[in-house]
Amino acid sequence: PGFSVEVLASVDSTSSELMRRARGGRTEPTLLVAETQTAGRGRLGRQWKSAGVYEGTGVVPALTFSLGLPLAPQGWSGLSLAVGVTVAECLDGTGAEPRIRLKWPNDLWLAGDRKLGGILVETASFATGPQTAEQPRYVVVGIGLNVLPVLAEGLSTPPACLREVDTSLSAARALKRLALPLVQALLGFAEHGFAPFQPRFARRDVLAGRGVTLSNGQQGTAHGVSDEGALLVHTATGMQAITSAEISVRPQ
Ligand code: BTN
């Protein structure tokens, strides 16, 4: 399918912009990049803050973009994990010791402890016709990645950045590497689901084997993800398959 690529100097949020367009009936495949976001969003209603383009220099310290396209997968769970696997493999290679790790369900970490970026998956229904499970929806995959080191005010650990992974990476180079593999991954997910991504996620799983606390306060040990992308947590009441929750890693 043809894709249009658009670069905006500034927008509130690339994901908000594509969702607004979809609600207005504009559902063509689009990759929207912003040099500066004024109201970037994360999961669970959080803000995603990134430094805007450095004035007068043109340097873009964070890569913020969203990819929107119609998709009709069997189910949506696992999609943000499949995106995370794809981003990590494109930027980190598939060597024996992965440096970019994935924290279920949507964080990219560098090594085991610092956040490199995040993924936000949203969908909009098409305006007309009854909605059924297999009908296409317009999916908007938003990705934010720190590229250059930033001063972390008020954060206990400074965020990680792509320059630590590969000193030759810029926002533009990273995007160039990611764009086509991401489209392919989304189409692959629609056809085959999460299962082919599961072992690739497992290699980078930050939580595996670690003590975790769920948002309801329950504690347990993470045991990887199911072939549908649910987080498996062993708790006092047995193994639970968690499809959506806030997970924090328990200090050991
Ligand atoms: C998270 O860490 O919770 C997800 C962060 C996702 C940020 C990206 S930046 C591009 C796109 N536009 C947004 O407003 N959010 C996503």
Automatic annotation (TrEMBL):
Q: What is this protein called?
A: biotin--[biotin carboxyl-carrier protein] ligase
Q: What's one GO MF term for it?
A: biotin--[biotin carboxyl-carrier protein] ligase activity
Report the catalytic activity.
biotin + L-lysyl-[protein] + ATP = N(6)-biotinyl-L-lysyl-[protein] + AMP + diphosphate + H(+)
KW Ligase (keyword) present: yes
Q: What class of enzyme is it?
A: ligase
Task: Write down the InterPro entries for this protein, in alphabetical order.
Answer: aa-tRNA-synth_II/BPL/LPL (IPR045864), Biotin_CoA_COase_ligase (IPR004408), BPL_C (IPR003142), BPL_LPL_catalytic (IPR004143)
* Species: Pulveribacter suum
Gene3D superfamilies membership: 2.30.30.100, Bira Bifunctional Protein, Domain 2
Q: Which domain of life does the UniProt lineage start with?
A: Bacteria
Q: Which Pfam families match?
A: BPL_C (PF02237), BPL_LplA_LipB (PF03099)
Residues covered by the Biotin protein ligase C-terminal domain: 219-250
Protein EC: 6.3.4.15
Q: CDD domains given for it?
A: BPL (cd16442)
Which Gene Ontology CC terms are recorded? cytoplasm
Keywords of the record, alphabetical order, are:
Biotin, Ligase
User: What range(s) does the BPL/LPL catalytic domain occupy?
Assistant: 28-125
